[in-house]
Write a structure and sequence with these properties.
Strand order of the largest sheet: 6-10-11-18-17-16-13-12
CATH superfamily of the largest domain: Bira Bifunctional Protein, Domain 2
Mean pLDDT: 96
Low-confidence stretches: none
Number of helices: 13
Number of strands: 18
Radius of gyration: 26 Å
Distance between the termini: 37 Å
Helix content: 25-40%
Structural class: alpha+beta
Length: 430
């Protein structure tokens, strides 16, 4: 019976055949241990010389790393393995013998591994990270579909920017100027006026010349937008969504988290509600922690976010940032016009901001004033203004950075390991 490693638990005591690649092997004169992978998981195959024809044992013993093969054998339980099963091999059939595979079991430098990203993805830890990424995506669709959201796909090529033009990739769209999208938010606001609750999931691009462990040039965003939802309710939606993601990863990625050595006890604490502090209180907290140079009106950098997060064992919302350092579309606090109804959600353990969101301006006159202040005179923005002209309603939304969320839940240090083929400041290959 042909099957996969992921389904071996369904075939204990049976003889099966899997297509696989040889990760590594060790052998003696009488037994060969084959470390196998097939894309769905990892398992050990045991070849006992006395139990198989001589040519089968010699084939198994002499195979090289990343050789592709068909393996036939009996599935047995193995309590010593974290996977729980192994294959007692009766036959191996080489499909393609690999030679001089560049990523050997020894230590390699980061640049070497990134140059060989197309092969590095085959490793057990990188595989685990991608499985966690996949689970976050699956759970995202589950959460929003179960809560009545419609998925809408905003364009990647746009004639306007969401938050300014300084960090955009410019391109020619025939005779017009165009940009690669840095956010689908403006379009999602239009969609919310048609469908009430919507979400998007797609690539975004920032031409930001940053080399930090938190930044990518191309990354993926989940961006919900909700009509008739104000700031406080939006925060509840965000914390329930994050709680759902964490619970799903803990439930469905146990082996992947174990492979990565993730401290799941910390993740188990991540349940709604999350703590909330205002920007004002965050400034006070930072000064107490020795950040004497931080002044009201300045944005927070990575060290500031990390210091704030250290005071909590869950993600923390920082709310009511100064209007001057936030985007033009954010609604001012009705009781205090110098701050806006917004929040950044800061992940624990130094992973920084994973969500940015706000209640949007719904008043036409105020939005026209913001257009003047931000010099948004281009006709490309007219359609966005009209959302306030024809049946405007209170509405809110947020954006979650997928790669930062993957980094946090999987416990990896750098976001370059959280996307299959990262685009960094000095990396466009492979």
């Amino acid at each position: 019976m042909k099957t996969t490693i992921a389904k071996l638990s369904e075939h204990v005591g049976e003889e099966v055949t899997i297509g696989a690649w040889l990760r590594n092997k060790r052998s003696s004169g009488k037994i060969a241990f084959l470390q196998l992978r097939d894309g769905t998981g990892f398992v050990q195959g045991v070849v006992v010389k006395s139990d198989v024809p001589e040519e089968v044992f010699q084939t198994a013993k002499n195979m090289t790393q990343e050789t592709s093969l068909y393996v036939t054998g009996k599935v047995v339980e193995d309590s010593r393995s974290s996977f729980g099963y192994e294959i007692q091999v009766s036959n191996v059939e080489v499909i393609h013998a690999a030679t001089d595979y560049p990523i050997t079991p020894k230590e390699h430098g980061t640049e070497f591994l990134m140059d060989n990203r197309h092969l590095w993805l085959r490793s057990q830890k990188q595989h685990a990270v991608m499985k966690i990424r996949n689970e976050i995506i699956r759970a995202t669709y589950e959460y929003f579909h179960e809560n009545g959201y419609t998925k809408i796909d905003p364009p990647i090529l746009t004639g306007s920017s969401a938050e300014g033009t300084t960090e955009l990739f410019h391109t020619k769209y025939f005779e017009e100027e165009a940009y690669l999208s840095q956010s689908g938010q403006l379009y999602m606001e239009a969609a919310a006026m048609a469908f009430n609750k919507v979400f998007s999931f797609g690539p975004t691009f920032r031409a930001e010349k940053s080399k930090t462990r938190r930044h990518l040039i191309e990354f993926w965003m989940i961006e919900p937008e909700m009509a008739f939802v104000e700031h406080a309710e939006s925060l509840e939606i965000q914390e329930n969504y994050i709680s759902h993601l964490v619970a799903s990863v803990l439930k469905n990625c146990k082996l992947d988290l174990e492979i990565l050595g993730r401290d799941t006890a910390k993740l188990a604490k991540v349940t709604a509600p999350f703590p909330r502090i205002t920007y004002d209180k965050a400034i006070e907290l930072l000064k107490e922690k020795g950040f004497d140079d931080i002044e009201w009106g300045e944005d927070f950098g990575a060290p500031h976010e990390t210091a704030i997060a250290e005071s909590f064992d869950k993600p923390v919302f920082i709310t009511h940032y100064p209007a001057a350092i936030k985007a033009f579309y954010m609604k001012p606090d009705p009781n205090r016009e110098d701050v806006v109804l917004c929040a950044d959600l800061i992940a624990p353990e130094g992973y920084g901001e994973i969500i940015g969101g706000s209640q949007r301006i719904d008043d036409l006159e105020l939005m026209e004033k913001r257009y003047e202040e931000h010099n948004l005179t281009s006709d490309a923005y007219n359609w966005y203004l009209e959302l306030r002209k024809y049946g405007s309603v209170p509405h809110s939304g947020f954006g979650l950075g997928l790669e930062r969320t993957v980094a946090w839940l999987s416990g990896v240090e750098h976001v370059r390991e959280t996307i299959p083929f990262p685009r960094l400041l000095n990396r466009l290959y492979p």
